[in-house]
Design brief:
The chain is 36% helix and 13% strand. It is α+β, with helices and mostly antiparallel strands. The chain has a four-stranded antiparallel sheet with strand order 1-2-6-3, sandwiched between helices. Strand 4 (121-122) and strand 5 form a beta hairpin. Helix 1 (3-13) packs antiparallel against helix 3 (59-85). The N and C termini lie far apart (37 Å).
Length: 237
Amino acid sequence: MTVSEQLKNELYARGAALVGFAELTCLPKDARQYFDYGVAIAVSYTKEAMQENADGDPARYYSEMRALNQKLPELANFAAQFLIGAGYKALPKPSTAVAQDENLRSALPHKTIATLSGLGWIGRCAALVTREFGSAIRLVAVLTDAPLDCGVPVAESRCGDACRACRDVCPGHAVKGPKWHRSLEREAFYDAFNCRDAARARARATLGVDETVCGLCIAYCPFTRQALGYYEVEDDV
């Protein structure tokens, strides 16, 4: 069994929902901190959290978010120690809210590693979308020099041309409409500031917390609804 297979098995046994390996050499060296490979690890929300949030009650979604935010660093740290034990260098990127600059951008988003690993693509709302769980996931990443068995990168959106589910439900009108592809700048299809402000307003109104918590785009995503099996799916996916 290869190191890649062993690591995947160990992560799945510890609660990971998806694991992907990516070659990062297409990215600037400083952004990937001179590591050539990355591990993307996802954990998933439940159907109940998604459906209740879509129905107007985000309490379970918020509770699960906090629990997943605690689980992800554990998985990242385990993966890094596993690779170090196998004789490689590894650096966990355990924060579930990666460091952002004044433009709400990060040097290497976890979802960039995920798309390069083949786990999914970027939806119109800038969330990672997967076949297995839709966008009802949270991500963490590990950088390494281990020559892992990498997946096939996803370079463009697989959302339906006619789908506007996330755009229509977004309270901040953050979704602008164009479909993502790797060379498209985020600002061309998504307004991070509108998203942040509207999410904080919704969290204050529904949960009484001053945090960036919304998730309506995730809950209404047809891929999420289809994967988790709630509501009828009529959208073009």
